[in-house]
Amino acid sequence: MGLEVSRLARNSADWHRLLELCALTSTLILDEEGVYDPASFNDRLLLSLKGTMSEAELHFLKARMRGGQLNKASRGDLKIGPPVGLVYLHDGTLALDPDAEVQAALCMVFTTFERLGSATRTVKFFLDEGILFPRRLRKGPHKGELMWAPPRHARILLSSEVRIWTPWAKRRTDPSLFCGFVGLERRSGLLQ
């Protein structure tokens, strides 16, 4: 016996496969409105309609949530987690992360990205050298704490775009004006 039709029906292809399987094995499906036998044409038709309605409901929920986000963004109230290297201050403005190791890691991303020319090569360099990359936890009991882990392509790509907001973007001719590798440690030893 299957329970909670609306939750199972949010993916039309999966839902119809489930109805077929239930019809073949003489399994009943029930919800708060009744008991259905997928082997019966009328019940199967009704279950198909319920599945279609559930899938549409999920679409409308997502559209409303997206609309809410866009509304907040248009008012300037939408806060999303900033990429590594930026933090929200108490007044809600964005600023460079005050942690020297984070700034050094970000600087290393900038210079490596510029030298190698791609995020993929930058990630490979970090992985080959065993260099860990920082990230701030966004939720849970340790929200805001710094964690070090192997870099991922998307995180490096986002970090390379942080240059737009940093003083380093204005000093591309001499990245050492912003980037000092002082304080950057590989978690397995001192970076050389």
From TrEMBL:
One of its GO terms (molecular function) is DNA strand exchange activity. Gene3D superfamilies: Resolvase, N-terminal catalytic domain (3.40.50.1390). InterPro entries: Resolv_N (IPR006119), Resolvase-like_N_sf (IPR036162), SSR_resolvase (IPR050639). It comes from the Bacteria. Residues 1-76 form the Resolvase/invertase-type recombinase catalytic domain. This is Resolvase/invertase-type recombinase catalytic domain-containing protein.
